[in-house]
C-alpha cells in the first residue's frame, strides 16, 4: 500500500508518503456504541475563519435538528501552511492525534498543494475532507483524493453554464480555446459530454467546430487566431488563466476579432484579466470567496450525515495518530458515502454533491463587460426549488455586444458563394452532356460539370428538373450564389471500407462515399437532390425540412390480359357449363316422355289447315330445348300435352335466368375487367419467401438499401435481393419494362413518375418506410435555418405543388386514370372463341352435309340395285306366268277339242271359259304406286290365288265406268 500511495502522490508529497509507518496497517477494535462527542478539524487560511469555525460549532451543539441529545461537537483548527509537507505534519500532529472525524480545509491563495496534502493525509485513513475553496479538477479524481468533497464547484463545471448560454442565444457552432493543463482538458470533456447527454435535439445542440489548445504562459496567440479566422463559427469559449487571457485578448484586438460579429464567452479567471474587451460575457461564482458561509455549510452537512449514520449504524472511533496506532477507518469510508447524499439549503444556496464529491447546484452570475471595463450583471444561473433544477435567466436588452452594440451577432460567418452537388435522378434532375458545337446550356438549364474521380476526367453537363428549379428559387430567396456539380461517383452515398496507410501499417476504415462523403469532407456546402432523410445520414450531415414527402413502394409491369380462345366461357365455371349441357338433354328427354305417355299427346291432331300435326319425337324435343335456351324461333315440334307444356314454361324461365346471368357476367369479365397487380405490397408472402421464384431489387448503397438493412423482419428478403441490386435506378426500371425484373423497390416519387409516364407500369401496395427528401448541409451549417424557412414558405405558397405538376406528373396521371376508368373495347382476343365456335359450327355443318350426301348416294345406289333385282324378278315371274297361262290355254284347247269330239262337256262350259280367259300377270311396281292401282293389284292377287274373278272384267268391257265400285 505504501508503494501504491507513492505512485499516486506528486513529487512534492513523496516525503509525506514516506513518513507513514507500516504500523498503520494494524486493526483497531471496534466500539459497540457510537461516540458521544465528535472532534471536527479545520485547516483554515486566517484568524477570522478559525474564529468563525469555532462559533459555528458552538451554535451547532444547540441545534437539535442536527445534534441529538448526548452528542457534542468540538472544533480543532490549525493554520494552513504554504509548505505542503508542514501542512501534512500539522494534520497528523494536531488533528488526527485528537481523533478528528472530519476535516474542513480552506485554500491558501499562494499555495495550491496545501489542500492536496491535507487530502492525501486524511484520505489515507478514510477521514472525510470537505474543501471550501479548492476548485481544481484534480480533486475530482477519486483514485487520488478518495475522501475529498467540496462545497464549491470545480472550474470545469462552468461548461454547463456555457451550454445554457449558447442554448439561450441559439448558437450551435463554437470554437473552444483552452489551456493544455488538467482543468483546460476537463472543461472540453465536460462540454462535449454534457452537450450530447443533455441536449437530445440535434438542431439546438452546440457542436464544436474547432478546438484550440495552447500551452500555459504563452507569449503570443496570433498564430492560433489566424487559423480561427478560417472557421465559420464566430463564437469563442475561452478557458484560460488571468495571465494567458491577457495575451489572448491583446492579440485578438490586434486582429479585429473583438469587434462586432465575434462573441467571447469566458470563465471566471479570464474575466478577471485587465484588458477584457467590451461585449465579453463571463461567469462569476456566487459566494466564491466567502469562506464563512462555506464553513457553516460544511459543518452543517457533516452534522447531518453523522446524525443519519448514528441512526443506521455504529460509528467507531477515529484514528488516533499517524505513528503506530493509526488504522484504515471503515466508518470514515461509510461517513463519506453519507456526506455525498446530502441535499440541504445552506448559506451558499442548494448544497448537494455528485458521485465525485463535487458541488452541484452552484449558482453563477452572468457578467457582461461594458465600456470603461465596467462589469454589469445581466443574468444569473440559479437553483429553482419548485422544479428542483438549475435555470438560466438573462436580460438580453441589457447586454452590450462586441463593437459596443446592442444587436446580437449571428455567431457565424456565412459564405455567400456555395458549392452545390446534385445527382441525375429523373424527374428531379435531368443531365445531358454538352455537345461539342454548344457554347452554353439552354435558358432553363444550369451548367453542372461532372468530375469523374475514377479517371480524373471532367465533362460538361447541363442540368434541369425539379431540384434545379428548387435550387434557383432557394438562391433567389435567401440570396446566395452557387456552383453546381454532379456527384463524382454517381452515388448518393453509403458506408464503404477503405484502406488507410499509417505509420504502423494499413488499417481498414469505414467512410462515406458519394454525395454524403463530399459533404462530410466539407468539399461541398449543399446537396440539392432527391436525398432521403434517414438516421444514418442525419448523424453526419444536417437536413432541411423535407421539400417532398414520400415513401418506398414497388414498381412492376402490369400483367397482360389473359385472353384465351375460350374467354367467352369465363362468366360460368366449368361445373355450371356441364350442368347446363346436361340439363338441356335431360329436359328434352323428359319432354319427350311426357308427350309420349300423355293421353293427349299420343294421337295425331288435326290442324286448322286440314293437315295433321306430327307427334313430338326425341329429336324434336332436343331441338325445342336448345331453341328455348338460345332464344331462337321454334318452328315445329312443340309439346302438345299439358304436363309437357308446363315443363316447357319452367325451362323457358330457367333459360331466361341463365342467359341474363351470362350476359351480365360477360360484361364484367370482358368489358370492366382490369388487370390487377401481382404483388400486394411489401408484406406479400412471395416477397418474404426466399424460395419463391420472384426477382426483386433496389439500388446499392441507397436509402432504401439502408432501410432494409436496419429492418430485422426484412433480413431474409434483403439477403435474397442483395445479389440482384443495381447500380442505378435507370437500369432497374428498364429491366422492369423488359420483363427481366419482376419488382423494383425504390422511392415512391420516382416510381409514381415512371408509372404516370408509362401506363404499362404500376406501383404495387401501400407506401412503407415513409420519409422525405431534404436539402443536405454540413453539420451546424449557417444556412440550415434559412433553407428550412424558405422550403416551408414554398410549401405554403404552392410553389412545391407547381413543381410536382410540372416535373413529376406531366398530366399523364390523368390520362392513365382515364384509361383505367374507361371500359375496355372488346377485340378479337376477347371474342376469338365465339368466332371459332361459329367457324366450328360451319365446318361441322359442312362435314355433316358431306356425310349426308355420301350416305344418300350410297342409299340411292342400293335402291337402284334393289330395283334392278326386283325388276328382274318381276320379269322372270311374268315369264313364268305366261308359260303357265299358255299351258293352261293349250290344255283347255285340248280339252275343248276332246270335248267336241267326245261330247264330254257342254257347250256352256266352253263358252264360260271363253268369256273369262286367264290374264297374264301385271308387272310388279314399287310400293309407292298410285293409290288407284291398289284395287287392281288386289283383284290381281285374288285371281292369281284361284278365286273367281269378278263377274265383269274391265279388260273386255267396252264401257265399264258404270261397273267400277
Automatic annotation (TrEMBL):
Keywords: Calcium, Cell membrane, Disulfide bond, Glycoprotein, Ion channel, Ion transport, Ligand-gated ion channel, Magnesium, Membrane, Phosphoprotein, Postsynaptic cell membrane, Receptor, Signal, Synapse, Transmembrane, Transmembrane helix, Transport. GO terms for cellular component: NMDA selective glutamate receptor complex; postsynaptic density; postsynaptic membrane. Residues 443-810 form the Ionotropic glutamate receptor C-terminal domain. Disulfide bonds join 759-816. The record marks 709 as: Interaction with the cone snail toxin Con-ikot-ikot. The chain crosses the membrane at residues 576-594, 646-672, 831-855. Residues 450-521 form the Ionotropic glutamate receptor L-glutamate and glycine-binding domain. SMART domains: Lig_chan-Glu_bd (SM00918), PBPe (SM00079). L-glutamate binds at residues 530, 532, 537, 703, 747. Pfam families: ANF_receptor, CaM_bdg_C0, Lig_chan, Lig_chan-Glu_bd. SUPFAM superfamilies: Periplasmic binding protein-like I, Periplasmic binding protein-like II, Voltage-gated potassium channels. It is found in: Cell membrane; Postsynaptic cell membrane; Postsynaptic density. GO terms for biological process: ionotropic glutamate receptor signaling pathway. InterPro entries: ANF_lig-bd_rcpt, CaM-bd_C0_NMDA_rcpt_NR1, Glu/Gly-bd, Iono_Glu_rcpt_met, Ionotropic_Glu_rcpt, Iontro_rcpt_C, NMDA1-like_ligand-bd, NMDA1-like_N. Its main location: membrane. It comes from the Eukaryota. GO terms for molecular function: ligand-gated monoatomic ion channel activity; signaling receptor activity. Residues 930-953 are annotated as: Disordered. Residues 1-26 form the signal peptide. Forms a heteromeric NMDA channel with Nmdar2. PANTHER family: IONOTROPIC GLUTAMATE RECEPTOR (PTHR18966). NMDA receptor subtype of glutamate-gated ion channels with high calcium permeability and voltage-dependent sensitivity to magnesium. Mediated by glycine. This protein plays a key role in synaptic plasticity, synaptogenesis, excitotoxicity, memory acquisition and learning. It mediates neuronal functions in glutamate neurotransmission. Is involved in the cell surface targeting of NMDA receptors. Plays a role in associative learning and in long-term memory consolidation. Belongs to the glutamate-gated ion channel (TC 1.A.10.1) family. This is Glutamate [NMDA] receptor subunit 1.
Amino acid at each position: 500500500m505504501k508503494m501504491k500511495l507513492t505512485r499516486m502522490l506528486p513529487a512534492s508529497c513523496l516525503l509525506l508518503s514516506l513518513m507513514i509507518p507500516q504500523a498503520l496497517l494494524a486493526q483497531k477494535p471496534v466500539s459497540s456504541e457510537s461516540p458521544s462527542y465528535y472532534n471536527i478539524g479545520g485547516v483554515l487560511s486566517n484568524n477570522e475563519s478559525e474564529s468563525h469555525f469555532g462559533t459555528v460549532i458552538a451554535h451547532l451543539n444547540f441545534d437539535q435538528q442536527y445534534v441529538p441529545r448526548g452528542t457534542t461537537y468540538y472544533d480543532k483548527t490549525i493554520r494552513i501552511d504554504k509548505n505542503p509537507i508542514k501542512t501534512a505534519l500539522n494534520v497528523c500532529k494536531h488533528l488526527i492525534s485528537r481523533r478528528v472525524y472530519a476535516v474542513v480545509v480552506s485554500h491558501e491563495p499562494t499555495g495550491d498543494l496545501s489542500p492536496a496534502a491535507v487530502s492525501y493525509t486524511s484520505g489515507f485513513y478514510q477521514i472525510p475532507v470537505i474543501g471550501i475553496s479548492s476548485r481544481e479538477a484534480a480533486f475530482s479524481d477519486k483514485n487520488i483524493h478518495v475522501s475529498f468533497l467540496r462545497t464549491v464547484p470545480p472550474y470545469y463545471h462552468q461548461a454547463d453554464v456555457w451550454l445554457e448560454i449558447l442554448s439561450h442565444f441559439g448558437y450551435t457552432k463554437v470554437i473552444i480555446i483552452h489551456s493544455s493543463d488538467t482543468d483546460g482538458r476537463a472543461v472540453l470533456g465536460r462540454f462535449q459530454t454534457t452537450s450530447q447527454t443533455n441536449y437530445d435535439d440535434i438542431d439546438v445542440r452546440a457542436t464544436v467546430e474547432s478546438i484550440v489548445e495552447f500551452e500555459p504562459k504563452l507569449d503570443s496567440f496570433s498564430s492560433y487566431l489566424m487559423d480561427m479566422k478560417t472557421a465559420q463559427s464566430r463564437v469563442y469559449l475561452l478557458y484560460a488563466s488571468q495571465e494567458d487571457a491577457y495575451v489572448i485578448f491583446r492579440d485578438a484586438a490586434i486582429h479585429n476579432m473583438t469587434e462586432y460579429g465575434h462573441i467571447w464567452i469566458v470563465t471566471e479567471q479570464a474575466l478577471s484579466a485587465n484588458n477584457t474587451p467590451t461585449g465579453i460575457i463571463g461567469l462569476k461564482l456566487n459566494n466564491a470567496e466567502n469562506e464563512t458561509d462555506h464553513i457553516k455549510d460544511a459543518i452543517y452537512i457533516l452534522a447531518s450525515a453523522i446524525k443519519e449514520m448514528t441512526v443506521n449504524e455504529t460509528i467507531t472511533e477515529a484514528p488516533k495518530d499517524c505513528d503506530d496506532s493509526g488504522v484504515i477507518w471503515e466508518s470514515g469510508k461509510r461517513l463519506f458515502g453519507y456526506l455525498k447524499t446530502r441535499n440541504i439549503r445552506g448559506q451558499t444556496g442548494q448544497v448537494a454533491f455528485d458521485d465525485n464529491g463535487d458541488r452541484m447546484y452552484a449558482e453563477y452570475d452572468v457578467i457582461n463587460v461594458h465600456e470603461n471595463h465596467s462589469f454589469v450583471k445581466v443574468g444569473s444561473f440559479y437553483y429553482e426549488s419548485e422544479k428542483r433544477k438549475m435555470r438560466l435567466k438573462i436580460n438580453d436588452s441589457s447586454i452590450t455586444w462586441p463593437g459596443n452594440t446592442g444587436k446580437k451577432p449571428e455567431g457565424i460567418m456565412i459564405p455567400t458563394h456555395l458549392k452545390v452537388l446534385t445527382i441525375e435522378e429523373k424527374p428531379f434532375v435531368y443531365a445531358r452532356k454538352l455537345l461539342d458545337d454548344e457554347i452554353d446550356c439552354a435558358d432553363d438549364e444550369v451548367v453542372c460539370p461532372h468530375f469523374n474521380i475514377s479517371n480524373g476526367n471532367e465533362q460538361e453537363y447541363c442540368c434541369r428538373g425539379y431540384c434545379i428549379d428548387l435550387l434557383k428559387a432557394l438562391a433567389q430567396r435567401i440570396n446566395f450564389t452557387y456552383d453546381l456539380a454532379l456527384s463524382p461517383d454517381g452515388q448518393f452515398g453509403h458506408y464503404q471500407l477503405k484502406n488507410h496507410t499509417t505509420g504502423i501499417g494499413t488499417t481498414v476504415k469505414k467512410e462515406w462515399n458519394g454525395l454524403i462523403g463530399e459533404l462530410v469532407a466539407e468539399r461541398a456546402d449543399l446537396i440539392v437532390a432527391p436525398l432521403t432523410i434517414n438516421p444514418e445520414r442525419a448523424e453526419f450531415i444536417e437536413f432541411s425540412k423535407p421539400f417532398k414527402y414520400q415513401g418506398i413502394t414497388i414498381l412492376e409491369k402490369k400483367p397482360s390480359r389473359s385472353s384465351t380462345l375460350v374467354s367467352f366461357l369465363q362468366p360460368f365455371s366449368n361445373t355450371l357449363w356441364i350442368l347446363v349441357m346436361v340439363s338441356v338433354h335431360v329436359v328434352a328427354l323428359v319432354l319427350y316422355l311426357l308427350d309420349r305417355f300423355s293421353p293427349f299427346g299420343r294421337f295425331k291432331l288435326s290442324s286448322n289447315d286440314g293437315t295433321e300435326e306430327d307427334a313430338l319425337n326425341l329429336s324434336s324435343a332436343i331441338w325445342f330445348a336448345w331453341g328455348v335456351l338460345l332464344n331462337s324461333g321454334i318452328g315445329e315440334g312443340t309439346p302438345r300435352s299439358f304436363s309437357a307444356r308446363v315443363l316447357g314454361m319452367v325451362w323457358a324461365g330457367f333459360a331466361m335466368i341463365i342467359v341474363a346471368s351470362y350476359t351480365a357476367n360477360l360484361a364484367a369479365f370482358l368489358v370492366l375487367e382490369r388487370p390487377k397487380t401481382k404483388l400486394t405490397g411489401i408484406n406479400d408472402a412471395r416477397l418474404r419467401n426466399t424460395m419463391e421464384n420472384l426477382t426483386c431489387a433496389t439500388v446499392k448503397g441507397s436509402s432504401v438499401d439502408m432501410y432494409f438493412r436496419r429492418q430485422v423482419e426484412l433480413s431474409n428478403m434483403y439477403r435474397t435481393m442483395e445479389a440482384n441490386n443495381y447500380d442505378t435506378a435507370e437500369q432497374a426500371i428498364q429491366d422492369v419494362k423488359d420483363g427481366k425484373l419482376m419488382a423494383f423497390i425504390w422511392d415512391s416519387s420516382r416510381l409514381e413518375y415512371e408509372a404516370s409516364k408509362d401506363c404499362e407500369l404500376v406501383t404495387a401496395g401501400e407506401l412503407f418506410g415513409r420519409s422525405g427528401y431534404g436539402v443536405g448541409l454540413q453539420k451546424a451549417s449557417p444556412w440550415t435555418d434559412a433553407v428550412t424557412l424558405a422550403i416551408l414558405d414554398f410549401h405554403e405558397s404552392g410553389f412545391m405543388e407547381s413543381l410536382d405538376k410540372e416535373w413529376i406528373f406531366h398530366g399523364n396521371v390523368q390520362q392513365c386514370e382515364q384509361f383505367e376508368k374507361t371500359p375496355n373495347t372488346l377485340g378479337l382476343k376477347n371474342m376469338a372463341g365465339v368466332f371459332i365456335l361459329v367457324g366450328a359450327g360451319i365446318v361441322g355443318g359442312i362435314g355433316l352435309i358431306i356425310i349426308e350426301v355420301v350416305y344418300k348416294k350410297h342409299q340411292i345406289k342400293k335402291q337402284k340395285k334393289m330395283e334392278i333385282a326386283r325388276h328382274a324378278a318381276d320379269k322372270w315371274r311374268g315369264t313364268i306366268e305366261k308359260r303357265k297361262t299358255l299351258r293352261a290355254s293349250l290344255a283347255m284347247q285340248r280339252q275343248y277339242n276332246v270335248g267336241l269330239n267326245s261330247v264330254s262337256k257342254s257347250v256352256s262350259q266352253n263358252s264360260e271359259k271363253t268369256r273369262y280367259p286367264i290374264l297374264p300377270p301385271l308387272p310388279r311396281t314399287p310400293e309407292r304406286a298410285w293409290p288407284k292401282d291398289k284395287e287392281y293389284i288386289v283383284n290381281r292377287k285374288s285371281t292369281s290365288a284361284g278365286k273367281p274373278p269378278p263377274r265383269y272384267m274391265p279388260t273386255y268391257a267396252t264401257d265399264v265406268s258404270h261397273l267400277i265400285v
